[in-house]
Write a structure and sequence with these properties.
heterodimer, A: alpha+beta, 4-stranded antiparallel beta sheet, 14 helices, 12 strands, B: alpha/beta, 7 helices, 35% helix, globular
Chain lengths: 485, 229
């Protein structure tokens, strides 16, 4: 007896008892619907969270610093200090303070023996960019500038934003205006908070031009020309240190709603004022903010307080993070947090699945009952089949396939029912969320693996439910069965 | 050629509660190929038990039972089902057709168990129904057929896997006398023209005397007389 024959016979038998088959299939489909509905709720919630996290740019980025965050000390302070302080491994490596810094006179720190390459300079950016799976590396810059708009002046911190950030976090949906068109233009973005300080109606700021000014050393030939700073730093002036003020315009192109939540990774790029990264870098490289930076060697490349490394996929974050650490840097990502969240979701899926399985357990008993009823009803038929040559195995196979067929039909119907119920609940919940002013989304997600898994599980469970009745049918004594009516 | 049936000292005991029922008590019988044997006896004489043992539906307690030299006593359940499938064809008093299947599906079912491919099954079922006089009625369900027609379907089914031995248990018990005559003629034709060995259980001495070559009479689990017609 071939499989095709058995399957045909099984479906035919099911078709003979339509009402009973329909009721049992209905029972199984409710069980599968509750199970797949529950799991798809778990998957949907996870997808929403992971999606939001992934878009925030928090999980595919690694923050690289020269030293472990907690151990960075010294005169430069912690992260806020200029990279130079953090990048100095030993006091001996620091060049002696000189009143007349000439490029050739002072040895650079890179020439001194250093156990690990801990300088976060352009060289480091290049090296990190070459790692596999790394999409982009850029410095995370904070620069202090004076902002002038009409009569209003204020000193504020500006950050450098790479073009790559356009698709990430807060920049995905701008409150007003748009992201930088290119990173070479004299443009800037401001945060909503900051915009409200500048104007009553934040929207009117788009297109207005701000004047940014900062100080550079008068001797620094590479810095843009500017008026000398007469007052303000008389002590430095007296020491023979000359400063110039440089002014640069920037046009506001967009206003960003500041993100709430942990300000790490990509999300931390939102500050009051945001400049295209190359421009921020240019200012950073020449700006004088304190005596130490005034005294530094002009030929020495400036180091950055921290770098942001973008990875092509969250799956590779851990891998890249480990590699960066092996290179001697300190690296940090929120990947561990995401992995933890994913583990928690697996637990949630299991719990939801178990709740859903209660209904499935009930329908499993229904399958057992149906099969026993069916065998009782067809005892004589089983006797006939045995008398004309049906083996125990053939009879068992017929009933096992019959049970599996119930599971298959019930599984398909159940997945469909679960999907429809999920849609309906999702629709209702989204109406409620919309009224409350939240963001709507899919609470239920039914990926293909869930569809296939639920149907497969339904077949398997029904098959298991059929084992006992099928064995009973196979072991029937044909003589007794033939006398049965 | 070995005998179609070779039985020696066959016993079958049933346990019913605390008493042992000796359904068969030392039966010996030899049937040469091509013989038509009538097995006569009252209810409880053991004739149906003997038929069930020959059919391989049950196993003997003691003794030997050979069908065309193959010993049934030592067969496993699987071997017995193959014996039922290929070596014997069984015809029942109450026809025992599967009511949800058409006539040709009933005939094809026994071929399905024997592993005959589908196309061949359908073709052979049609030919068999034709040969028992039911040509063109293959798509009818048992309910739509008369008793005589149903028994013809059952005979066609018994012939499906071309067994040499036909076992008939009161084949005309549920039929009127005219139809009974037709069924008996069909069985005799199969015996004469297709050389099938037939063992027919009946309680009607006249029927046995008229159609069988030899009438074996049983009483209380033993053979009491053998009469050659």
């Amino acid at each position: 007896m071939t499989w095709a024959d058995t399957v045909r016979l099984a479906f035919r038998n099911l078709g003979q008892a339509r009402v009973r088959t329909a009721l049992t299939v209905g029972g199984v489909s409710i069980g599968i619907a509750s199970l797949s509905g529950m799991v798809s709720l778990g998957v949907g919630l996870q997808d929403q969270l992971v999606d939001r996290f992934t878009k925030s740019g928090m999980f595919d980025s690694i923050t690289v610093t020269a030293m472990p965050l907690g151990r960075a000390g010294g005169p430069g302070g912690r992260l806020g200090g200029r990279g130079r302080a953090a990048a100095t491994p030993t006091p001996s490596a620091t060049p002696a303070p000189s009143a007349t810094p000439t490029p050739s006179a002072t040895p650079t720190p890179s020439a001194t023996p250093s156990p690990v390459p801990v300088k976060l300079d352009d060289e480091a950016i290049k090296k990190l960019s070459e790692l596999p799976s790394v999409k982009a590396v850029y410095p995370m810059l904070r620069i202090g500038v004076q902002v002038k708009l009409g009569d209003y002046t204020e000193f504020t911190t500006a950050s450098g934003v790479p073009m790559a950030a356009k698709e990430e976090g807060a920049f995905q949906s701008m409150a007003h205006g748009a992201f930088f068109a290119s990173d070479t233009e004299d443009a800037c973005m401001v945060s909503m908070d900051y915009a409200k300080r500048l104007a009553d109606d934040a929207g009117t700021l788009v297109g207005k031009t701000l004047a940014l000014s900062y100080a550079v050393s008068a001797k620094d030939a590479s810095a843009p020309a500017g008026a000398p700073v007469a007052p303000g730093l008389p002590a430095l002036g007296a020491a023979g240190l000359q400063l110039r003020r440089v002014e640069t315009p920037c046009t506001i192109v967009g206003i960003v709603e500041r993100e709430t939540g942990p300000a790490l990774g990509g999300a931390s790029m939102v500050t009051g004022l945001m400049l295209p990264l190359p421009k921020a870098r240019a200012i950073y490289n020449v700006q004088v903010t304190n005596a130490q930076s005034l005294l530094r060697d002009q030929a020495e490349a400036r180091t950055y307080p921290s770098l942001s490394v973008k990875v092509d996929s969250t799956r590779h974050t851990q891998d890249v993070e480990d590699k960066i650490k092996a290179m001697g840097y300190s690296a940090f990502s929120l990947n561990d947090l995401l992995q933890g969240a994913k583990r928690a979701f697996i637990l949630l899926d299991v719990v939801l699945g178990l709740i859903g399985s209660i209904a499935l357990a009930v329908s499993l008993l229904m399958v057992v009952n149906t099969m026993i009823m069916s065998i009782l009803e067809r005892t004589r038929e089983i006797g006939v089949m045995k008398a004309i040559g049906g083996s125990d195995a053939a009879i068992r196979k017929i009933f096992l396939i019959e049970a599996s067929a119930i599971g298959f039909i019930g599984g398909v119907a159940g997945v469909a029912l679960g999907w429809v119920l999920g849609r309906v609940i999702n629709f209702g919940v989204n109406i409620y969320i919309e009224r409350q002013g939240g963001t709507t989304g899919n609470l239920f997600s039914t990926p293909l693996w869930l569809v296939a898994g639920a149907i497969g599980f339904s077949i398997l469970v029904s098959l298991a439910a059929g084992i006992f009745p099928a064995r009973r049918a196979a072991r029937l004594d044909p003589i007794h069965a033939l006398r049965h009516d | 050629m070995p005998p179609a049936l070779d039985i020696t000292h066959l016993t079958k005991h049933y346990r019913m509660g605390h008493t042992v029922v000796r359904a068969l008590d030392g039966v010996s019988l030899t049937v040469p190929p091509g013989e038509f044997v009538g097995l006569l006896g009252t209810s409880g004489s053991g004739k149906s038990t003997l038929l069930n043992l020959i059919a391989g539906l049950d196993s003997p307690t003691e003794g030997t039972l050979r069908v065309f030299d193959r010993d049934l006593a030592g067969m496993s359940r699987q071997e017995l089902s193959e014996h039922r499938s290929r070596s014997v064809g069984i015809i029942f008093q109450s026809f025992n057709l599967i009511s949800t299947m058409t006539a040709s599906e009933n005939v094809a079912l026994s071929m399905m168990f024997a592993g005959v491919p589908r196309a061949e099954r359908e073709q052979r079922a049609a030919a068999l129904l034709e040969s028992v006089g039911l040509g063109g009625r293959g798509h009818h369900r048992p309910k739509e057929l008369s008793g005589g027609e149903q028994q013809r379907v059952a005979i066609a089914r018994a012939l499906a896997n071309e067994p040499e031995l036909l076992l008939a248990d009161e084949p005309t018990g549920n039929l009127d006398s005219k139809t009974s005559g037709e069924i008996m003629s069909l069985l005799r034709r199969l015996n004469e023209e297709r050389r099938k060995t037939v063992i027919m259980v009946t309680h009607d001495p006249a029927l046995a005397a008229r159609y069988a070559h030899r009438t074996v009479t049983m009483l209380d689990g033993t053979i009491v007389s053998e009469v050659i017609s």
